[in-house]
Amino acid sequence: MFVHTVFFWLKHPEKQADRDALRAGIETLRDIEHMDAAYIGVPADTRRPVIDHSYDFSITFVFADQHAHDAYQEHPMHLKFVENCAHLWERVRVYDAVGH
Amino acid sequence: MFVHTVFFWLKHPEKQADRDALRAGIETLRDIEHMDAAYIGVPADTRRPVIDHSYDFSITFVFADQHAHDAYQEHPMHLKFVENCAHLWERVRVYDAVGH
């Protein structure tokens, strides 16, 4: 099992059009066939000192293994998303985990 | 849908006994009945500038909603895990996301 988690911080979080565009872009990733489960989210209302709720969008994509993840990374729809949307984010932070 | 993601950094990553103890503690969380999916991992071999692979363990627990997540937080097995294992970690970082 391979869990690919990404947090996105918008360059202009005050611009609703940017927010909408990034969300729309992220939603296209869900259709890529290599993943077993896909979760797209925004920060919950939970607040504790250990919680980072500063991001704008999160994705949690679960793959069978790293091979499936690697195929996703190279998938034309993923590459197109990066090409179309990279200008919208200030920062992304990725956590890749293998386990069960 | 509510995704609760936690990254753990060991206080003494060089101590295998600490690593084993934290992993064993994390594994007990999987049995808590409030979650729909549970993934426990360690950093993958992927390396890109945007990837943070500095953590020791990750959990990605998926709940139907925040109510289920809140019940998990208060579950005796979760509280016991924190009581037993908190001394093992230097830092935890939590990301809670709501979405679909």
From TrEMBL, chains A, B:
Q: Any signal peptide, and if so, which residues?
A: none
In terms of PROSITE patterns, this protein maps to: S_R_A_B_BARREL
| InterPro entries on file | Dabb, Dimeric_a/b-barrel
A UniProt-annotated Pfam family = Dabb
* Domain spans labelled Stress-response A/B barrel: 2-97
Q: What is this protein called?
A: Dabb family protein
Q: Which organism is it from?
A: Nibrella saemangeumensis
